[in-house]
Amino acid sequence: MTRPHSHPFIPYTPPRLPIEDGLDHGRAFHRLLDERRSVRWFSPDPVPREAIELAVQAANTAPSGAHQQPWRFVATQNPELKRRIRAAAEEEERRFYHEREIPDWHAALARLETDADKEFLEVAPWLVIAFAQKQQDGKKTYYTNESVGIACGFFIAALHSMGLATLTHTPNPMTFLTDLLGREGERPYILFPIGYPADDCEVPDLHRKPLTEALTFADGLA
């Protein structure tokens, strides 16, 4: 069938897997991601630049509002820049933990045993900051937060597939990243420390929401 278009379109004919093969792929993908954990103890062992490039290439496959792809990933392994990012992040974190009256949020974080010390920002061999672009070439982007969030999810999955670990670090506010990295007009979205888990790495003993709580089939009208 040929449809009329006012803009360029191309055929899309991905291979259709047999049902059991497709389910096997889905099960394998779930097993892979079910092993993923956020990490705060990193090895300083080097991570090749190509791994960062591949993860961003994966992020670039994410859907986005009007296909505007309103993100920019900024990567650094410069020790001095990492030190300055850590210092600025810890300044904001000290305010969060010791000055801001948000008891419910503090209580929710208690089982993670986090604090204002962010040593991992210097130990992890790479820091990658995802920035959201509210405008491109002077024009507004649409569904920006949703689009960048999906891209970051793809980015995390790609890192995990290569045996790398990360953490979605979001000190609030994060405007210091805009200044330190010269990203005027872009909003810091997530700060990712990236590396291999340390040999003595530990993670909280947490359990993911079961499928029965995450999925509802709506089989009829309300």
For the structure shown, list the relevant keywords:
222 residues; alpha+beta; 4-stranded antiparallel β-sheet; two-stranded antiparallel sheet; 6 strands
Q: Would you write up a description of this structure?
A:
Keywords: Flavoprotein, FMN, Oxidoreductase. This is Nitroreductase family protein. Residues 34-196 form the Nitroreductase domain. By secondary structure, the protein is of the alpha+beta class. It has helices at residues 19-34, 49-59, 79-98, 103-109, 120-123, 144-161, 175-180, 211-214; strands at 71-76, 126-133, 135-136, 139-140, 165-166, 186-195. The mean pLDDT is 96. It is globular. The longest helix has 20 residues, at 79-98. Helix 2 crosses helix 6 (144-161). The protein has eight helices and six strands. The strands form two sheets. It has a four-stranded antiparallel beta sheet with strand order 1-2-6-5. Strands 3-4 form a two-stranded antiparallel sheet.
The total count of strands amounts to 6
What overall form do the CA principal axes indicate?
globular
User: What structural class do you assign from the helix and strand content?
Assistant: alpha+beta
Query: What integer is the average pLDDT?
Result: 96
Q: Could you give the order of strands across the largest sheet?
A: 1-2-6-5
Q: Indicate the percent of residues in helices.
A: 25-40%
State the low-pLDDT regions, or none: none
Beta-strand percentage?
Answer: 5-15%
SSE blueprint:
Layout: H1 19-34, H2 49-59, E1 71-76, H3 79-98, H4 103-109, H5 120-123, E2 126-133, E3 135-136, E4 139-140, H6 144-161, E5 165-166, H7 175-180, E6 186-195, H8 211-214
Helix pairs in contact: 2-6
